[in-house]
Amino acid sequence: MHPGETSRPERRISLPFDVFAVSQQLGAYLDRALEGTGIRPAEYAVYSLMLEAGPRTPSELAVMLGMPPSTLSTYLAAMLAREDARRIPNPSDGRSVRVVLTDRGRSVVRHVNPSFSRAHFALDASLARPAEEIRAVLVELGEAIDRATATLAAESGKQDDSYPDSSSS
């Protein structure tokens, strides 16, 4: 243990607590890795997904990110204001739009990518198991959360619109 660090509790509170704590730890790690880039880790996730997924509706992006639509809307508003993204018509639904990165938005990804890649490779190199094995467990966990969300919504007799259900995509 390093000076200033506290040991992790021997007895875990719950699986959701453990996932929360790891999420916080990852956030701090990525904050440090992206320091000085002008982009926060959550923003970089949105930019990266938009680059990889191509034009998508905001709802599709929210589901893919596991993010409430209102949170994604905040990120998209900032990206649109900076002209890092733009709205384009949705050819399959004239009532909605898709969003896409502009050249300026793609340059943001190119600027931040080296810092993120260093952090990504350092984390992968520190894993005791193959990354694909861990990713499979994370997918399983995400699917379980979707099922549990549906169960809670059914038990309360209402649909929870604050968290996108990835099963509807």
Give structural notes.
- The protein is mainly alpha-helical.
- It has a domain at 34-126: Arc Repressor Mutant, subunit A, CATH 1.10.10.10.
- Helices cover 61% and strands 6% of the residues.
- The chain is built from six helices and two strands, in the order ααααββαα.
- A two-stranded antiparallel ribbon has the order 1-2.
- The protein starts with 14 loop residues before the first helix and ends in a 13-residue tail after the last helix.
- The relative contact order is 0.11.
The CATH architecture classification of the domain at 34-126 is Orthogonal Bundle
Strand content: 5-15%
Here the CATH topology of the domain at 34-126 equals Arc Repressor Mutant, subunit A
Overall form: globular
Provide the residue-averaged pLDDT.
89
Q: Keywords, please?
A:
169 residues; mainly alpha; Arc Repressor Mutant, subunit A; two-stranded antiparallel sheet; globular
SSE layout:
Blueprint: H1 15-33, H2 41-53, H3 58-65, H4 69-81, E1 85-89, E2 97-101, H5 103-126, H6 131-156
Helix pairs in contact: 2-5, 3-4
Describe this structure in a few short sentences:
The chain is 61% helix and 6% strand. The chain has 169 residues and is mainly α. A hairpin with a 7-residue loop joins strand 1 and strand 2.
